Structures are given as structure tokens and as C-alpha cells.
């Protein structure tokens, strides 16, 4: 960036709505397409793409307001049940691909991918609008609401030579945020007053948490960078009084994509006894009957998670959650009637240990991809919340934290004369431009030569940091203790082989019809019976 002024952090304001069929979650509004279609979506700390529901995700047995329940705003003065790609003049289709997220937890589904214009927050709010962003239309109800990925990794598709940048990367490349970083807390509908989520790109809001001095390095697996050790879990005011629910350290992923906390069967059994939970074998959820529910609300247990990569108390952070953070309701299509449940899931292996969205109601996470570290803080609540205090996270380029009119300005730490700095910069820039031209020429030729080569010989464009590449999860199969390494490239490959592939809700009756392509009104028409097909190499 040289000596140019760097931008201020970008505050992505919450929608003021509470959505979800597995809890009451603070959502964020995005605008997709031309003309714009609006959606309320959930931030994903594990993903990097933008997913929005499509009409095929709502079927006849769903409630009449299925679209609204899935976060879809009315479009063109009418109720909408999902993204209408054929109504967007800026939509450019990529194809039907596996969603590639949360496979280790048993989530599945395909997405109809394309490029389109995406804006943040409602119209005329001042939010940025970026063209050519990767968007997937989803029908699966595994992801009931749309997703907004917070990570900077690119998306890789088999029919493109180069990775496609994420929204965060585009914000940084277009000088709209100071760094590849964010601060996020999920918000809490059970607090009085309710407090929506908070999301800041390129910085954080220090008014939303009680700070601590601990910082943790990114995990070695670039698909699980927010990995943190759980040293212990204790609870007070339970049906059994004060209890220790876990004493053996585990490594868990902080992941806002999913609502629940995933722990070992032993720990889940301890929760079950302390809170009077009932396990439902059909849904794998822990239910709370009316009598126990009333008693727990009266007792208001507090659950504390001790987080850190060592057992040294000086190097750990304690995050405390009230019972309200676990007092959730599951709705259709999970249950016909609204049902009280406790957001706890049984993990069958260590790749499934997860601190989900329920945890982030009471925790604030700051992720800094340029320094490769993150921190977790106790979320701050009070009846009259203070004004936002937005703090920039600057890139590791010698910038001092000076701000002027909402922007941060760099400051040289060395005493070189300005003319000398300018001369060095110009010379270095010329050399870099020449090298870049040679590399681009080399990789374009290589891409053309290898397009028909065996998949195992394909490689991504060089120079992409490890955390930024789009790899498949290197986890174990569900219900198995044995880990299997996936071979082959990091590219995703188009699903199916059907003529005119499309999406369908995973709870719909499947009927496959062969129709002329001219009969289709949208690219989402025909059925793909499985959204998780992969090539033999695991891609």
C-alpha cells in the first residue's frame, strides 16, 4: 500500500430480524443480482462463499411463507421463495457443484453456482456492492438460511484456470477494508433487551466484548484455522448443582455455520444427567420436556468453557454462557410442532468437535488472517449498550495505528528520506511488474497445456498462501475412528452428468424427467438425486 491512506473497517450491520428453524438467530441482509433480490443470511466463520435459497427448496408441504422463513425478502412487489437467477441480468452460471462445507458433520447438498453482483445491507444503506462474486443457489434444508462466508480463501472450480476470490478478499483488493480480518459475535435474542449480532470487516467493535490478552495461532489445517483447545467445562445451578462436565482436553473448531456444540458421547452424557435432557434418536437432538424446561429457566444454570492450547491457567480464557443461550426451539421441518431442545450433539470422532453458533451468542471472535491468529472474548451485555467503538486491524506492513476521518494512515518506522523511499519503491515496483508478467504468461501456457491432463497432475496457481487455498476437509468418515487422507487436487468438479442439472429440496419426492433444454425457465429445473457426488480421487 506504500504511503497511501488505508481504509477504515467496514461495519456490516445486522438486519434487526431473528430467523431460523433451529433457534432464533440474528441475520444480516445481502443484495444479490440486477435488479437486486434481498436475503437474510447467517455469517459462516468456516466458509468463504455466499449461498442463498432457491425456489426449489420450498415444496408443497412447507408452510406458505417458506421463503420468508428461509430469509427471502419479497421481490418485485411479490412474495418470493428464493433467488431467481433468470431475473438477474448480471448472473453468469458456473454449474452445479457440491457445497463442500460441514461434510465432517454429515451436512450435504449441492449448489447451483454462478457469478453475480452482491451488496451488503439493505438498499441505500451505504453498504458496498461488488460485481462478479461467487454465489450458490441452494435447495437443501440442511442449511435452512443462506450463508455469508467470512473467510478469505478462494473458491476453486474445475472449469476455471484460477481460483475465484471470496467477498472478503474482494473487499481488501478493492481497498474497502484495511486487512483480511473480522470481529463477530452472533447476538442474543434471549437477553433483555435483545442484542443483534455484530460483524466488522477489517477490525472489531470493542464495545461488544470484555477484552483479554490471549491470542491463539491459526490451526495447521487451513480448513480449520479457528481451532482451539477446550481444557474443561463446568456448570453451576444445574439439576445436580455444580458439576464438572469435561476434564480431558480436546481440540474444537469455532464454527458459526452450525447452531450446536458438538462434544464426545461421554461429555454429552454428563450434560444429559445434569440438565435432564432426553435424546431423540430420530433427529439426534437433545430435547427438554416442559417440566424440566421450567425448572431450568428458574435455576438459570451457568456453563463455563475454559479455552486454551495448554492447561496453564495463565494461558486460557473462560467463556460463560447462561442457560438462555442453550434454551432453543426447533421448528419445521425438524419437528411439526415447535419443540424445546438443547443445542448439543454427539461427536463420533475428533473431527466433529465444534463450538457452534450457540456458543458465539456469548463469545466474540476476532480473526486476523494476515497475522494468522485469533482471539476469543466474553461478549459484553448491559441494558444500555455503549456506542460502537470500531478498531482497525492493520496489515503487517509497518503501519502505525493512526486514524483520520475514519481512515488509518501508515507511518514509516525507519528514518529514510522520502525521495529515497520513492526511488526504492519505483525500482522495486518495476521489477515486480516484470516478474508478474513472466509468471502470468507461464501459468496461462501451463493451464492450456494441462487442461486435458489427468486430474492428479493439475495444480493451482502458485503463490497462494496455504490458508488461502481451497482444500477438501481431511477428516474422518462419520461413525468411524479411522481417518482417510484424500488424494488428488483441490479443485471442485461439476456434479452429475444429467442433462440440464438442477436442484431440489432434500425432503421432496424425486421425479426425474428428461426435457428439452428450451423448456427450462431457470437453471434450477431438473433434479440431481445426490448433491454430494465426487470423483474417485475425492474431489
Automatic annotation (TrEMBL):
Residues 26-377 form the Peptidase A1 domain. The chain crosses the membrane at residues 418-443. One of its GO terms (molecular function) is aspartic-type endopeptidase activity. GO terms for biological process: proteolysis. Keywords: Hydrolase, Membrane, Protease, Transmembrane, Transmembrane helix. One of its GO terms (cellular component) is fungal-type vacuole. This is Acid protease.
